């Protein structure tokens, strides 16, 4: 808008803007641009939200199936990352999480390729879990403990196999059945089953 008449509102506004510092005018332009983006954002947000809801729903269905599979076998539980986490939390309540930690340490140990690292890792695992009065001593018999000690002299990826197998059997026969009967797992499986029923009723 332009006006040559004295007292014209547009002329007063233009003079007022001209008197403002350049920095203020730049900030005003920036603010206008941002407001313009926000006006169009809800539609974009809706699309992203819908997509993430679909993905979340899919993940929930997958996790529900996993939870119910844990009771099929101890192997199914150990194959599931969330299953291992849930079992570990349960073992903490029984103060026996060192058995699972030892099993996991052995699984990680088997992936080691460097002979130097293999030897140092083997000693560290033995000192933490296997030797008598170790800080986190696992429940294995004296004979298995001695076999493992001898294996350290020429450490290979198989040097904990016997001790790991004994610990796994102990968890499978002792802790695993109690985990399946625990209130925490019963609650998780009920929720998983109800989500599965809800999914079937919608299809």
UniProtKB/TrEMBL annotation:
<dbReference type="GO" id="GO:0009968">
    <property type="term" value="P:negative regulation of signal transduction"/>
</dbReference>
<feature type="region of interest" description="Disordered">
    <location>
        <begin position="182"/>
        <end position="203"/>
    </location>
</feature>
<dbReference type="InterPro" id="IPR016137">
    <property type="entry name" value="RGS"/>
</dbReference>
<keyword id="KW-0734">Signal transduction inhibitor</keyword>
<dbReference type="GO" id="GO:0016020">
    <property type="term" value="C:membrane"/>
</dbReference>
<feature type="compositionally biased region" description="Polar residues">
    <location>
        <begin position="183"/>
        <end position="196"/>
    </location>
</feature>
<protein>
    <recommendedName>
        <fullName>Regulator of G-protein signaling 16</fullName>
    </recommendedName>
</protein>
<keyword id="KW-0597">Phosphoprotein</keyword>
<keyword id="KW-0564">Palmitate</keyword>
<dbReference type="InterPro" id="IPR024066">
    <property type="entry name" value="RGS_subdom1/3"/>
</dbReference>
<keyword id="KW-0472">Membrane</keyword>
<feature type="domain" description="RGS">
    <location>
        <begin position="73"/>
        <end position="189"/>
    </location>
</feature>
<keyword id="KW-0449">Lipoprotein</keyword>
<comment type="function">
    <text>Regulates G protein-coupled receptor signaling cascades. Inhibits signal transduction by increasing the GTPase activity of G protein alpha subunits, thereby driving them into their inactive GDP-bound form. Plays an important role in the phototransduction cascade by regulating the lifetime and effective concentration of activated transducin alpha. May regulate extra and intracellular mitogenic signals.</text>
</comment>
<dbReference type="InterPro" id="IPR044926">
    <property type="entry name" value="RGS_subdomain_2"/>
</dbReference>
<dbReference type="Pfam" id="PF00615">
    <property type="entry name" value="RGS"/>
</dbReference>
<keyword id="KW-0343">GTPase activation</keyword>
<dbReference type="GO" id="GO:0005096">
    <property type="term" value="F:GTPase activator activity"/>
</dbReference>
<dbReference type="InterPro" id="IPR036305">
    <property type="entry name" value="RGS_sf"/>
</dbReference>
<keyword id="KW-0732">Signal</keyword>
<feature type="signal peptide">
    <location>
        <begin position="1"/>
        <end position="19"/>
    </location>
</feature>
């Amino acid at each position: 808008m332009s006006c040559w008449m004295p007292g014209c509102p547009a002329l007063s506004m233009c003079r007022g803007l001209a008197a403002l510092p350049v920095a203020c005018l730049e900030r005003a332009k920036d603010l206008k641009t941002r407001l313009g983006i926000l006006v169009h954002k809800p539609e974009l947000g809706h699309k992203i939200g819908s997509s993430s809801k679909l993905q979340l729903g899919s993940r929930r269905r997958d996790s529900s199936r996993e939870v119910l599979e844990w009771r099929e076998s101890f192997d199914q539980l150990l194959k599931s990352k969330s299953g291992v986490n849930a079992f570990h939390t349960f073992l903490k309540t029984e103060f026996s999480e060192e058995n699972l930690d030892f099993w996991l340490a052995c699984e990680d140990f088997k992936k080691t390729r460097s002979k130097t690292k293999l030897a140092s890792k083997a000693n560290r695992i033995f000192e933490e879990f296997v030797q008598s009065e170790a800080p986190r001593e696992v429940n294995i018999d004296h004979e298995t403990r001695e076999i493992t000690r001898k294996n350290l002299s020429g450490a290979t990826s198989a040097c904990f196999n016997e001790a790991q197998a004994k610990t796994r059997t102990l968890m499978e026969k002792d802790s695993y059945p109690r985990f399946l009967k625990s209130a925490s797992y019963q609650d998780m499986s009920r929720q998983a089953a109800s989500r599965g029923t809800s999914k079937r009723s919608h299809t």
